[in-house]
Specification:
Blueprint (H helix, E strand, L loop, with lengths): L18 H9 L5 E5 L2 E2 L5 E2 L15 H7 L2 E5 L6
Parallel strand pairs: 1-4
Antiparallel strand pairs: 2-3
Helix pairs in contact: 1-2
Length: about 80
């Protein structure tokens, strides 16, 4: 089950590992590209990508900020809407 609480299937060539190892990879600068979803990004690059407003939502930031700061590049995917 991934962070969005959906089941996943490991494909040939895929791998999984303990979360402590994943944080060591992020914090150690071993990630080349990080792709995150986001709610808001400011003109200076400040990132808001988590919410605790929904029932059943994950109640914390998790590893997103470790990914955003530890990866060599961070790509943000989001819907763009006008007010």
């Amino acid at each position: 089950i991934y962070a969005g609480k959906q089941p996943v299937t490991l494909l040939p060539g895929g791998a999984y590992f303990h979360h402590a190892d994943s944080f060591a990879m992020m914090r150690g600068g071993h990630i080349d590209i990080c792709v995150l979803g986001a709610f808001q990004v400011s003109s200076t690059g400040d990132l808001a990508n988590w919410s605790t407003g929904e029932a059943g939502a994950i109640p914390a930031v998790g590893g997103a900020m470790d990914l955003a700061t530890g990866a060599k590049q961070t790509w943000v995917m989001m819907d763009l809407l006008t007010k």
